[in-house]
Design brief:
mainly beta; 53% strand
Length: 265
């Protein structure tokens, strides 16, 4: 079921070119599809985070397409208050004559293993129209608000709602608990509802800029076979996301690989 905005935002029409369409998808999919690990640690002998806490970290990823590097992405998790965290993402990508820069963040509460989103923000600049999206969750009034309207989003309330970043914390926790299938009700950047589904495919040893890593391979489940998205997590690093692949009709759109990582223990 789709939520709706009472006063829809009238955005500028995108540049009409197949290169820009592919470029925009390349960057947008990275920000929304990447799954990060809030509990990641490089020291495999370190104590795993307890259900009541998250490990703050900074990570850098190389973004490539068909073997050529087109940019970098940075992710970080910071504690900003009692039981409150902010998961942030930033990317700078160049492809052909096009550029895309974006900053994305989710502020959420984490209590006894439960992830409760508070607000989400995305700012995008570069080739084409600049855009800013903001979503906030009023749990007391059971309403969702978007900067695209002065009214609340017309949407039945679901206490399990996540935004397009906060669900990633819940997914990592599920993997650590041995779960193999996942489903999350999502409020996206425009205030629409979506269902994100994932399933574990198995284990695989992969080679990264940081060396060989034993991983768990996870597939995003779509309603058709045209799109493909795979994510690899490293159990030895407390399920850090170390690689992500995005494709369409069997053709690679982009790949992301872990380049650097620092845990703030």
């Amino acid at each position: 079921m789709q939520c709706s905005i009472t006063t829809p935002f009238q955005a500028k029409a995108p540049i009409s070119t197949r290169f820009w369409a592919a470029k925009y998808l390349f960057a947008a999919a990275l920000s929304c599809g990447t799954v990060s690990s809030a509990f990641a640690q490089q020291d495999t002998n370190a104590t795993t985070a307890t259900p009541s806490s998250l490990i703050e970290y900074n990570a850098t990823y190389y973004v490539t397409r068909q073997g050529e590097r087109h940019g970098e992405a940075q992710r970080s998790l910071q504690k900003v208050g009692d039981n409150t965290y902010e998961l942030s993402y930033r990317s700078e990508i160049e492809w052909m004559v096009f550029s895309d820069e974006r900053e994305e963040s989710s502020r959420f509460e984490y209590i006894d293993g439960d992830v409760t989103p508070l607000d989400y923000k995305l700012e995008r600049t570069g080739t084409g129209p600049d855009k800013t999206y903001k979503i906030s969750f009023d749990h007391a009034e059971q309403q969702v608000f978007s900067n695209q309207s002065k009214y609340a989003v017309e949407c039945p309330w679901n206490p399990d709602y996540q935004d397009v970043l906060s669900y990633q914390i819940a997914l990592r926790k599920g993997l650590a608990n041995g779960e193999t299938k996942f489903s999350y009700p999502i409020i996206d950047k425009k205030g629409n509802t979506r269902e994100y589904q994932f399933e574990v495919l198995g284990t695989e040893t992969i080679t990264l800029p940081i060396g060989n890593v034993e991983t768990i391979k996870v597939k995003r489940v779509y309603d058709n076979d045209k799109r493909q998205a795979m994510v690899w997590f490293a159990p030895s690093m407390n399920y850090m996301m170390v690689r992500m692949f995005k494709g369409k009709d069997g053709v690679e759109q982009f790949q992301v690989e872990l380049a650097t990582y620092t845990a703030n223990n």
